[in-house]
Amino acid sequence: MSEQTIDLKKRRFLTGATSVVGAIGVGFVLVPFLSSWMPSARAKAAGAPVDVDISKLEEGQLVINMWRKKPIWIFKRDKTVLDNLPTLNDSLTDPDNTVEKQQPAYAKNLYRSINPEIAVITGICTHLGCSPTYRPEIGAADLGGDTWKGGFYCPCHGSKFDLSGRVYKGVPAPINLEIPPYHFVTDSLIRIGVDPAAATS
């Protein structure tokens, strides 16, 4: 075996080893750089926006996403639900949403939403912070029979809310459920954590 053959083998080995070490070094540099583009768990908990695809959301279906460590309910209301909402006003503590902090200005309406069909509500009871259960069935005997038009029931202390998140009279919860800031990025994509004005500015 000639000296030239040995040198070529060494050269190939050293070139390969240098390439591997260089690739690893590039990886160590790129991973933190690319990770910096993604919100950290701490940033998400602090309120980084959360995108929710609702393209497959069906009438009556509720999905839950987390934002600021709170469950956010997104559900689709049908025509019957929308028609029933104004009939409940006399049974509610605050049907006109007078507590300003409980909803952004663009959700201060009967539906407490931007699009009447799509509800976006923080799923935490305003009494002691339990998470109510979704009870969309009309006429549930354990919730008032004919007077129950669907809504949310808190099993901890019995608070009830309609399908706009408005609280019923005579229950422990003092105010309506909170509506988080949100806007529609597209017809089928909701961004929780950013209101429409901030999205367009």
Give a brief rundown of this model.
The protein has helices at residues 3-35, 41-46, 79-84, 196-200, and strands at residues 50-53, 62-67, 70-76, 118-122, 133-135, 151-153, 160-161, 182-186, 189-192.
What fraction, in percent, of the residue positions are helical?
10-25%
Q: Which CATH architecture of the largest domain would you pick?
A: 3-layer Sandwich
Radius of gyration: 27 Å
| Strand line-up across the major sheet | 1-9-8
Based on DSSP secondary structure assignment, what is the total number of beta strands? 9
What summary fits the major beta sheet? 3 strands, antiparallel
As a percent range, the share of strand residues is 15-25%
Judged by helices, strands and strand pairing, the structural class is alpha+beta
| pLDDT averaged residue by residue | 87
Identify low-pLDDT runs: none
- How many domains, as an integer? 2
Q: Determine the N-to-C terminus distance.
A: 73 Å
In CATH, the homologous superfamily of the largest domain goes by the name Rieske [2Fe-2S] iron-sulphur domain
